Write the structure tokens for this entry.
Amino acid sequence: MSSQGILTIVSGFSGVGKGTLMKCLLSEYPSEYCLSISATTRAPRAGETDGVNYFFVTREQFETMIREDKLIEYARYVDHYYGTPKDFVVEKLSQGINVILEIEMQGALKMKQKYPESLLIFVVPPKASDLEERLVGRGTEPPEVIKNRLRRAAQEAVYMKDYDYIVVNDEVERATRQIHEIITNERDRVLRRDDFIEKLTQELQIYSQQELK
């Protein structure tokens, strides 16, 4: 197996269960995966820990990270910056750990352009009515907000064809296993095994020139 971890970007419609799948993935395979920790300029909320929930930095520190190209991606929301520190991701990948980023569709496609070796997985419901049922079942939002989320999902559906894999979240344990199998198999794709291929080729050339024992 390749020693380099896979940078995996997971997207999906609001309410499809991405967060639940990620929690299950980390619970089932704790030594193989980690969620990327974002840096942010907002203040910590109650119960949040620096280096666990976020890397909390000042605006000046964040803007320095932007200038020095130390972020894989970043965005600004409501006067605060959020971004993915490059050093954290590179370190985890070099340790053979698969790093998961939950990013919306447009951001994910920009990531793919910048890091073509990254793996894109799109999580979907079995059918549209299931998505509506899940959003309603959460009981946390009024009908108009739910309708807006469904309209947004209809707009976002066009991005599915640009992803590497589609995972249908019909059952959490099954979908979690599928994600794990996709990432595990991806590690053995030829394009990720250059070092192994070169080493084995060199060894075969040496053995081919030796006399048989």
Q: What stands out?
A: DSSP finds eight helices and nine strands in the chain. The helical segments are 18-28, 59-67, 86-94, 105-114, 128-138, 143-156, 172-186, 194-208. The mean pLDDT is 90. The first strand starts at residue 7 and ends at 12.
